[in-house]
């Protein structure tokens, strides 16, 4: 397959922006109206994300061997949307129909065959993984909300317990949906290592204009139920069994997976793994926004290998958490993990590389890292690894 030709043809369609997305969904829902129920009630957050994700993945089919682990994870994760085998073919038809409509005379039989073959490779990889997963795990886990605590006007910490065991690694994420916003899934990172009682703690901030996060902060209550998807992501996970000292940099609720990594080191050290130094920089807009500091101070008091350094502009003369962390000694000898707003993550890689941290030792919560698709969107075929 001619990957360059696939990419250039998709660029032509992408230039039409929302018009292309509207055509895609119009075809999909007219031809297969039953698919509408797989998507959120409001499509405002969806728009062109599905079309862009599909086109981006398929047009980079020349890198498919590198993307197989990601695509397999994507296929397993999509089971939570109630996606079945027939849906892959239906979405593929809508993609090809949209390409044909906007490419006009450029759409030839040969180009159509190339797009069809590329899509079949991608969807086939996802579908096989989904079918394999269906033999051993549910499409989603129902979980009871045991505790819900507001820790600020726009922030909550809540604890759930799945009704079936859910295994994950610290630093991974799970998609979450609740009846308050049906079919709207968002990724959250557990703030703890797996516990014997199966409980999972989540931290969430209500995003202005967000579809799900305001409901989780302001409306979710003890006794409610949520649904959780399969754990995904490898960017923020630690290699088990010890290793280099760690520098953890968290801003806002990006603290959640960083705290889970601290707890992993705690568990490993108790099991006899040689202790490694862990420095955790946690940043917030103000001292009052350091919502989990008492828990962190408790961990710090219990372990000599851990130091917690809160960073707020009012205490650091306007310095942000990344700037404060960059002054850490022996940076190049550490594994560095960063989790926070996309703007910080985007800047962190270059900033850390500039002070001598090897690329292989920089771990970011970057939804686009190591894969082809854009950021996650609420709907089938668009969930992304985190």
UniProtKB/TrEMBL annotation:
Region (Disordered): 366-386
Cofactor(s) needed for function: heme b; FAD
Domain of life: Bacteria
InterPro entries for this protein: Cbr1-like_FAD-bd_dom, FAD-bd_FR_type, FNR_nucleotide-bd, Globin, Globin-like_sf, Globin/Proto, MRET, OxRdtase_FAD/NAD-bd
Keyword terms of this UniProt record: 2Fe-2S, Heme, Iron, Iron-sulfur, Metal-binding, NAD, NADP, Oxygen transport, Transport
Record-linked PROSITE patterns: FAD_FR, GLOBIN
EC number of the protein: 1.14.12.17
GO MF annotation list: 2 iron, 2 sulfur cluster binding; heme binding; nitric oxide dioxygenase NAD(P)H activity; oxygen binding; oxygen carrier activity
Domain Globin: 1-131
Residues in FAD-binding FR-type domain copies: 138-238
Catalyses which reaction(s): 2 nitric oxide + NADH + 2 O2 = 2 nitrate + NAD(+) + H(+); 2 nitric oxide + NADPH + 2 O2 = 2 nitrate + NADP(+) + H(+)
UniProt keyword Coiled coil present: no
The keyword Cytoplasm is assigned to this record: no
Pfam families (UniProt xref): FAD_binding_6, Globin, NAD_binding_1
Family membership: Belongs to the globin family. In the C-terminal section; belongs to the flavoprotein pyridine nucleotide cytochrome reductase family.
Protein name in the entry: nitric oxide dioxygenase
Species of provenance: Catellatospora chokoriensis
Upper taxonomic lineage: Bacteria, Bacillati, Actinomycetota, Actinomycetes, Micromonosporales
